[in-house]
Amino acid sequence: MRAGEQAIVVEVGLDDDLAGWLAAMGLGPGQTLTVIRRAVFGGPLHVRTGSGGELAINASLARSILVAPVPSPGTA
Protein backbone atom coordinates (compact mmCIF):
# COMPACT_ATOMS: atom_id res chain seq x y z
CA MET A 1 0.00 0.00 0.00
CA ARG A 2 1.07 3.55 -0.66
CA ALA A 3 0.77 6.64 1.50
CA GLY A 4 -2.81 7.92 1.51
CA GLU A 5 -4.39 4.58 0.60
CA GLN A 6 -7.12 3.11 2.78
CA ALA A 7 -7.98 -0.52 3.45
CA ILE A 8 -10.14 -2.69 5.66
CA VAL A 9 -8.47 -5.25 7.91
CA VAL A 10 -9.69 -8.72 6.91
CA GLU A 11 -7.54 -10.96 9.08
CA VAL A 12 -4.60 -10.73 11.45
CA GLY A 13 -2.39 -13.81 11.11
CA LEU A 14 -0.64 -13.56 14.47
CA ASP A 15 -0.85 -15.19 17.88
CA ASP A 16 -3.86 -14.23 20.01
CA ASP A 17 -1.93 -11.87 22.30
CA LEU A 18 -0.45 -9.81 19.49
CA ALA A 19 -3.68 -9.88 17.45
CA GLY A 20 -5.56 -8.72 20.56
CA TRP A 21 -3.11 -5.88 21.09
CA LEU A 22 -3.49 -4.76 17.47
CA ALA A 23 -7.29 -4.93 17.77
CA ALA A 24 -7.13 -2.77 20.91
CA MET A 25 -5.02 -0.29 18.94
CA GLY A 26 -7.66 -0.20 16.17
CA LEU A 27 -6.23 -2.75 13.73
CA GLY A 28 -8.64 -5.63 14.19
CA PRO A 29 -10.77 -7.34 11.53
CA GLY A 30 -13.39 -5.04 10.03
CA GLN A 31 -11.56 -1.86 10.99
CA THR A 32 -10.18 0.61 8.47
CA LEU A 33 -6.66 1.93 8.24
CA THR A 34 -4.92 4.62 6.23
CA VAL A 35 -1.24 4.49 5.35
CA ILE A 36 0.41 7.73 6.39
CA ARG A 37 3.99 6.90 5.50
CA ARG A 38 6.20 3.99 4.48
CA ALA A 39 9.79 4.11 5.65
CA VAL A 40 12.50 3.30 3.13
CA PHE A 41 14.51 0.07 3.10
CA GLY A 42 11.78 -2.04 4.73
CA GLY A 43 11.37 0.23 7.72
CA PRO A 44 8.15 0.70 9.68
CA LEU A 45 4.75 1.47 8.24
CA HIS A 46 3.03 4.47 9.85
CA VAL A 47 -0.76 4.01 9.82
CA ARG A 48 -3.86 5.79 11.09
CA THR A 49 -6.69 3.63 12.38
CA GLY A 50 -10.36 4.23 11.72
CA SER A 51 -10.71 5.52 15.28
CA GLY A 52 -8.02 8.15 14.65
CA GLY A 53 -5.12 6.53 16.47
CA GLU A 54 -1.71 6.38 14.83
CA LEU A 55 1.00 3.78 15.18
CA ALA A 56 4.09 2.49 13.43
CA ILE A 57 4.38 -1.22 12.78
CA ASN A 58 7.42 -3.04 11.47
CA ALA A 59 7.36 -4.57 8.01
CA SER A 60 7.21 -8.15 9.32
CA LEU A 61 4.14 -7.37 11.42
CA ALA A 62 2.50 -5.51 8.53
CA ARG A 63 2.88 -8.58 6.29
CA SER A 64 0.80 -10.56 8.80
CA ILE A 65 -2.20 -8.25 8.39
CA LEU A 66 -4.47 -9.15 5.46
CA VAL A 67 -6.36 -6.15 4.10
CA ALA A 68 -8.86 -5.43 1.33
CA PRO A 69 -9.48 -2.17 -0.52
CA VAL A 70 -12.17 0.12 0.87
CA PRO A 71 -15.13 -0.07 -1.54
CA SER A 72 -15.83 3.08 -3.51
CA PRO A 73 -19.11 4.83 -2.67
CA GLY A 74 -21.96 3.19 -4.55
CA THR A 75 -20.13 -0.12 -5.10
CA ALA A 76 -20.65 -1.70 -1.69
TrEMBL record:
Q: What is this protein called?
A: Ferrous iron transporter A
- Cite the Ferrous iron transporter FeoA-like domain residue spans from the record: 1-69
Q: Does the keyword Transcription regulation apply?
A: no
Name the InterPro entries for this protein: Fe-transptr_FeoA-like (IPR007167), FeoA_core_dom (IPR038157), Transcriptional_repressor_C (IPR008988)
- The species this protein belongs to is Sorangium cellulosum
Q: Which residues form a coiled coil?
A: none
Q: Which domain of life is it from?
A: Bacteria
Keyword field contains Iron:
yes
Q: Name one GO molecular function term.
A: transition metal ion binding
Any idea which UniProt keywords this protein has? Iron
